[in-house]
Predict the structure.
Amino acid sequence: MTERVVILGAGVVGAAIAYELSRLKKFEITILDTGSPAEGSTGAALGVLMGIISRKTKGRAWTLRRRSMERFPELLAELAAAGQPVPHNPHGILKLIREPEELEKGDRLREIRQASGWELAVWDQGTIQQQCPQVQAENIAGGIFSPQDFQVQPVPLTKALLAVAQQNGVRCQFGVAQPMLQCQGQRCQQVVTEQAAYPCDWLIVSAGLGSLEITKSLTETLSLGPVLGQAFQLRVSLDLEIPQTFQPVVSFEDVHVVPLGQGEYWVGATVEFPDDTGEISSDEDLAQAVLRKAIAFYPVLKKAEIVRHWSGKRPRPNGQGAPVLKGLAGYENILLATGHYRNGVLLAPATALTICDWLLAPEAIAF
Ligand SMILES: Cc1cc2nc3c(=O)[nH]c(=O)nc-3n(C[C@H](O)[C@H](O)[C@H](O)COP(=O)(O)OP(=O)(O)OC[C@H]3O[C@@H](n4cnc5c(N)ncnc54)[C@H](O)[C@@H]3O)c2cc1C
């Protein structure tokens, strides 16, 4: 009998799960969202995939990153072949480093990655100046260049995943009323909205910050909090820009400059925590500080106009590492795929593949 899967949340994580499950041709899949796809945290993300260049070298954190970076190139090729090409910057990521000691750590990371078949290069100041004259390298010791990491536009990615999932038979229902879970014993029997009931053999909760409300009435309450991020789209007049064929994402102390082509850039992001009362609001000074930092290492941006300024809330788990990827305690058929905090775009493919593994071999589910 075909097993029925209901996925709650159509951000990049839910969309990736729907897509990967749909390829298995074993499940009857429905994805529900109370809003529109990619309008949550995903809609604010820069889509920088810091996988190989990340400092994680072992455990789940590295396994998920490695799995995503192995899957991403194939995934983009599959989506393009299905008529859904996703805009991305394939030039790699250059992470600038201020201190010489950090550069030595970079060299150790390069050796570790090389041993498992990944490429990284450690560049001194002169090499950066030569390879990337658009970068102001005066105050840095050098950088690590990762040719296999890249940037992908999160909203088109999510929409492409959903479009192809739908072609593969996934039922998509957006703008639904807050879904209620009907459970019996250790199983969720169905998800009920004002419009319809969706019986399920598996329930996947991938609703980002909305996962909190969904699990509130269940045995294990999730603890997730928002961390706000502000970002900008900037435009430099093409007359002012010296054309560069090599335009990697450049990152320095958590500020990313993402070249989009045609003089357009994304710059971000702030990291803003709620105050003691749990309130969170955009801090203009922090946003300006991000812009100033970006201009300092990417000087052409000084002449840029701000085309767009936005913010979003990252779902951050409290008291456990991101993401929350496990079976919900007390239930046999509810899986949590949420709380991806700052790396949800990066980790979406690996999250989706883990869910596929678990649905194919439920004895392997981590609780
Ligand atoms: C400024 C900024 C920059 C970022 N940059 C990056 C980056 O460069 N790289 C990276 O990897 N990550 C980045 N992130 C983090 C990334 O955006 C998140 O980790 C990721 O989008 C989480 O995806 P998600 O699908 O879990 O959640 P969301 O995108 O929030 O999607 C959750 C969905 O669930 C729906 N929903 C809510 N409640 C319910 C309910 N009860 N029932 C059904 N549906 C529901 C919502 O409508 C929403 O569509 C950034 C985030 C921000 C804010």
